[in-house]
Design goal:
It is built from four helices and 42 strands. By secondary structure, it is mainly beta. It has a single domain, classed as 8 Propeller (Methanol Dehydrogenase, Chain A), CATH 2.140.10. Strands 1-36-37-38-39 form a five-stranded mixed β-sheet, with no helix packed on it. A four-stranded antiparallel β-sheet has the order 2-42-41-40, with no helix packed on it. The protein is globular and about 65 Å long. It starts with 5 loop residues before the first helix and ends with a strand. GO terms for molecular function: quinone binding; quinoprotein glucose dehydrogenase activity. Its cofactor is pyrroloquinoline quinone. Belongs to the bacterial PQQ dehydrogenase family. It comes from Primorskyibacter flagellatus.
């Protein structure tokens, strides 16, 4: 890869940078002991998991679809490894890839949706069809070999439903094991929508499944409370376990403590009837829905990202977010404190908790779990791998939640002056691997010119910064490092299960934050605005009122210079790393993202140097020894050698590639595909293209 001097990098990076910046780090590899130490981050119920929450009988398990010719799940296979056994495209021939087709969804922002599109979609491939959703939840089926449209279904999501951005990451598929050949909706495509609905259509025709809910739709606003467009939305594909569709929802951050509930619910995949509800603050009372006239507990942590289905155990694993106000916690309940920022395992047939593992205690940094967890075998034990926004990567026993790799303890952490009695002075930390880098120092400050660099150094000294887990402050700003989009976000990681290699892309940009006293807060919470007003105009926390707390919040995501847009820290701002699953050691680590779209004051330099840009979206690994990834803000789609980290092939996308790619096979020909639809927070051009490549036909 090309190397450049730090000074040249500073010049090249002095352009516009995305508001959402993720975190990187250096690892502290350590060989796991024969018996990893236990951590109190695991709930007490884990010790009783095997006896109190025995897995459901296997005779009700659904057929698990295989990855290879198909890409049947959002995470590739049922284990969410993002690994494909296809090997037609190899390190030796990948440079010969040619574009086969481009499909246009036709869904581009109009009217009040302008500047609010971040589609992020990853199609499924099942049989001869590609199945996808557009930014505004239009369901589309496309011929996987030609890109010709088979059908589309538009559920009519209005612009005012857009939360931060118009996003649909993907869909899920369920086959009725009792259906006869030719039955309508024998196999159905199910998605959650921005206006909080579950929609099911026939895979063959796109017609709504009339037996699912009301004419193919289930209203997720049921028992949640007042309908406020944009406050409560679904952006992730649901998990389907033992015939139960499990979904959470995104609750727009920072608006008010009295926010919609973070309840997670399971629905019958055939009828759409509520099977159970997991309201973490009232799990028994609200199991079948709240009592008449009441709603699910307001303001509780939610699951906005993608859950993982474990058909074998009958469990579903929920990466949980934070409470409705991220940066102030003294008003939270004990239930919120217990489950926020935790991986929670539920019995998918009953909705009962089996165990939970908390990665941040009393989270006041918005370090919610954004990545989908991955199922794997770890040294003979069925395990689950959990990446976090802080960069820590954990491997847990999937039946009990007990750590299989070492979990350490940070102690004597700063508690600050705002909530010294609330902020925890200890935190769990992975001693197996972390993407997190060393604490910032003054010499890490950067700028386009010496004056800009001096300005950043002054800002560094003006802020409170006491290293990792510096608590929020109001008297002056505080530096949050890693920033809230973390080491790993929704794009998740990929695992080559044959080679035993984990691939993780990451970012390395801090946030510069300040709690705003109530009498200085000028923004209004979403339920006091007009429908859709400013719903997607700011990054998370940029000017959030946090109604009900003593403070609002101001976040400079990426800590960018107000004049030049340059991050105040030195590049690289993003990278990709290969990790040995057996030892947790780094195999290689390199920047990802060139300077071609960055330059002084937003002027593209078109220089191909690998400087490492912010990135959003994950990767795919293949038996052919390749890592396919877009994600970076340079609009390139890459193939990387999994053994060395060398880029072997790249191509320019017509819009931002902030989506997870896939690979599949049709008639013996391997295809690789990614959506090029852009991302307004990442400040990449918006489009509507889904593009496929393959080797030339003989």
């Amino acid at each position: 890869m090309t190397r450049i001097s730090p000074f040249a990098a500073a010049l090249l990076m002095a352009g516009t940078f995305p508001l959402h910046a993720q975190q990187t780090g250096t690892d502290t590899p350590q060989n796991p002991p024969a018996e990893a130490p236990q951590s109190d981050a695991v709930s007490e119920s884990a010790a009783q998991a095997e006896t109190d929450s025995a897995p459901p009988s296997e005779d009700v398990a659904q057929i698990v679809r295989e990855v290879g010719s198909d890409w049947p799940y959002w995470g590739g296979d049922a284990d969410a490894t993002r690994y494909s056994p296809l090997d037609q495209i190899t390190r030796d021939n990948v440079a010969r890839l040619e574009q086969v087709f481009t499909f246009h969804t036709g869904d581009l922002p109009e009217g009040t949706a302008e500047g609010k599109y971040s589609p992020e979609v990853t199609p499924l491939k099942i049989g001869d069809d590609l199945l996808m959703c557009s930014a505004m939840n239009i369901l589309i089926s496309v011929d996987a070999a030609t890109g010709e449209e088979n059908w589309r279904f538009n559920p009519g999501v209005p612009n005012e439903a857009i939360p931060y951005g118009a996003t649909c990451r993907g869909v899920s598929v369920y086959t009725n094991p009792q259906a006869a050949e030719g039955d309508a909706c024998a196999t159905r495509v199910i998605q959650g929508t921005l206006d909080a609905k579950l929609v099911a259509v026939d895979l063959e025709t796109g017609a709504p499944c009339e037996d699912f809910g009301e004419n193919g739709t289930v209203d997720l606003w049921q028992d949640v409370g007042e309908r406020v467009p944009g406050w409560y939305a679904v952006t992730a594909p649901p998990a389907i376990v033992r015939g139960i569709v499990v979904t959470g929802a995104q609750v727009k951050d920072g608006q008010a403590e009295d926010a919609p509930s973070g309840v997670v619910r399971g629905y019958d995949a055939l009828t759409g009837e509520l099977a159970w509800a997991w309201d973490l603050a009232a799990p028994e009372q609200n199991r079948n829905g709240p009592p008449e006239g009441e709603v699910y507990t307001r303001g509780t942590p939610n699951m906005w990202t993608t859950a993982t289905a474990d058909e074998e155990l009958g469990y579903v694993y929920l990466p949980m977010g934070n409470s409705s106000v991220d940066y102030y916690g003294s008003n939270r309940s004990e239930a919120e404190n217990e489950y926020a920022t935790s991986l929670v395992a539920l019995d998918a047939t009953t909705g009962e908790e089996v165990w939970h593992f908390q990665t941040v205690r009393r989270d006041v940094w918005d370090y919610d779990l954004g990545s989908q967890a991955t199922l794997l075998d770890y040294q003979g034990t069925p395990a689950i791998l959990l990446p976090s926004k802080q960069g820590d990567i954990y491997i847990l026993d999937r039946a009990t939640g007990e750590p299989l790799t070492p979990v350490g303890e940070l102690s004597d952490l700063p508690k600050g002056e705002i909530e010294p009695d609330f902020v925890s002075d200890t935190q769990p930390v992975s001693e197996w691997h972390t993407l997190r880098k060393d604490d910032l120092t003054e010499k890490d400050m950067w700028g386009f010119t010496p004056i800009d660099q001096l300005w950043c150094r002054i800002q560094f000294h003006r802020a409170n910064y006491d290293g990792f887990y510096t608590p929020p402050s109001s008297d002056k700003p505080w530096i949050q490092y890693p920033g809230y989009n973390g080491g790993s976000d929704w794009g998740s990681v990929a695992v080559d299960t044959e080679r035993g290699i984990l691939i993780a892309n990451y970012n390395d940009v801090p946030n510069y934050n300040r709690l705003v006293p109530r009498d200085e807060v000028t923004s209004q919470p979403i339920h006091k605005k007009g429908a859709g007003e400013d719903s997607g105009s700011n990054a998370e926390g940029a000017a959030d009122p946090q109604e009900g707390a003593p403070y609002g919040i101001s976040v400079n995501a990426g800590w960018r210079n107000d004049v030049t847009g340059v991050p105040c820290t030195r590049p690289p701002y993003g990278g990709i790393r290969a990790i040995d699953l057996a030892t947790g050691e780094t195999l290689w680590d390199r920047p990802i993202g060139t300077a071609r779209r960055n330059g002084p004051f937003g002027i593209p330099s078109f220089l191909p140097f690998d400087i490492g840009t912010p990135n959003n979206g994950g990767s795919v690994v293949t038996a052919g020894g390749l890592v396919f990834i877009a994600a970076a803000t340079d609009n390139l789609f890459r193939a990387i050698d999994i053994e060395t980290g060398e880029t072997l092939w790249s191509t320019v996308l017509p819009a931002g590639g902030q989506a997870n790619p896939i690979t599949y096979e049709v008639d013996g020909r391997q295809y690789v595909m990614v959506s090029a639809m852009g991302h307004h927070f990442m400040e990449t051009p918006v489009g509507d293209e889904v593009i496929a490549w393959a080797l030339p036909e003989d």
